[in-house]
Amino acid sequence: MISAIIEERRSVRKYDPDFTIEKEEILEMLEQATLAPSTSNLQPWEFLVFLDDEERKELRKIAYNQEQIETASAVIAVLGDKEFYRNIDPVYDSMSDAGFVDDATKAVLVGNALKAYPHASEQSRINMATFDSGLAAMQFMLIAKERGYATGPMGGFDKVKFMERFNLEERYFPIVLITIGKENAPSYSTTRIAIEEKVKFI
């Protein structure tokens, strides 16, 4: 089943502008997507979900006038959190409350995280947050495909203007926009370089 979803997924640019997806279902998909692995389970991601027509007009300007910003049912902005070490206590308290770790294990996990992440360079934390958020973004697109929706990842937008226009806190930075909705025109298929040219066994 997962193989078929992966093989059938395409990046879509043409959407039915009259098709809607309920907020509750978007939340369900994002909740599933964030079961993706992350650095020490610190979940360095945030999401802005664009539904409002006026806000999406503004977003379209920032995204180089790409029409799918307005015709998709929603646009998910995936943000990285370069201060994800602030999640240390909430994450490990939650794991402890759920009975997943005992007090001794929790103390070790918290201690290791406090030693590593608050003192890491900002660029290192940006790299980790970008990688982890990318895992969640890909899972979201596969979950959406399983539910019958089309998606399209968009890296083509002005990230500085995005941060300014939507008043992001200093700790957050935009990584990718994902359009989601009902496909309105067939997307073209693509090819891949032969895997033998991309893999070396050592």
From TrEMBL:
InterPro entries: Nitroreductase, Nitroreductase-like. The keyword Transferase does not apply. The keyword Oxidoreductase applies. This is Nitroreductase family protein. It comes from the Bacteria. Belongs to the nitroreductase family. Keywords: Oxidoreductase. Residues 6-182 form the Nitroreductase domain.
